Amino acid sequence: MKPAVRRQIPQGHGPVAAAGDGEPAIRGKRHGVDLPADRWLHTFTGHDDNVTTVAFSPDGRRVLSGSWDQTVRLWEVARRRPLLTLNGFTGKVKSAVFSPDGRRILTGSTDNTAQVWVAATGQPCGAFRGHMGPVAAVAFSPDGRIALTGSWDQTVQIWEVATGRILQSFSGLRGQVAAVAFSPDGQGALSGGDDQAVRLWSFVWDYEFPEPAAWHPGAQPYLENFLARHTPEPRGWFRWQSPPAWSEADFQQLLAELVNRGYGWLDAEGVQRELKKTAGRRR
After folding, report:
1. Distance between CA atoms of 173 and 84, rounded to whole angstroms?
2. Which of 53, 173, 191, 240 has the fewest CB atoms inside 10 Å of its own CB, making it the most exposed?
């Protein structure tokens, strides 16, 4: 079996790994203590070839895995069960990520395209065509409006998610691109490849922020993800669910996240009211 590759995941969950035997697995942490290296929480079976990319959803409740079998599969972590399969690829899947709100999935494959999918249904909702080689790396901007793709054609391209329009292309690299990432504020990006170099890119976005407001429904998914991360595990014989709990520091982190996601114009008091209202509906 080929060595497992570990990826970073949301706080409070165990690492997820993709292995060359074609199966993604979760190994874990319980009560803040790392489990032994040879103890696995669960193995998700279903892929027919090597698993090349894995990721948790922002709320940590779902896992996605992409494979050379030309599929991306979604799994529910708590119940350890498959949810759906993304089909229709004409090449091996090289990379896949969730959007910051968890509602979409961005994939890259050896058919030279990147595609956007609806996470709830597995239906395609957009495609980026323009690379001349396999798309080995993909990333969403912090607000989910922009996509970044890196390819073996030695280019990095920037796309508008809503329209599929290419915004900018960086060429002149000296090797195949294997990794891309946005900065937390969305104003820059990193790329790396087989030329043994890491490149830092800077963007200048022409964007006017709306007038300050108490709330906007577009930010609701980030509140849901926040509450999911701050809701204790069910306990007791009847699996009693404790209400969400967070500190002032946690709330400040949420406000910082909303800034990075493009909602920095929301009023803190309005966000606090909506957060408490949403928490009340979850009880």
Report:
1. 37
2. 240
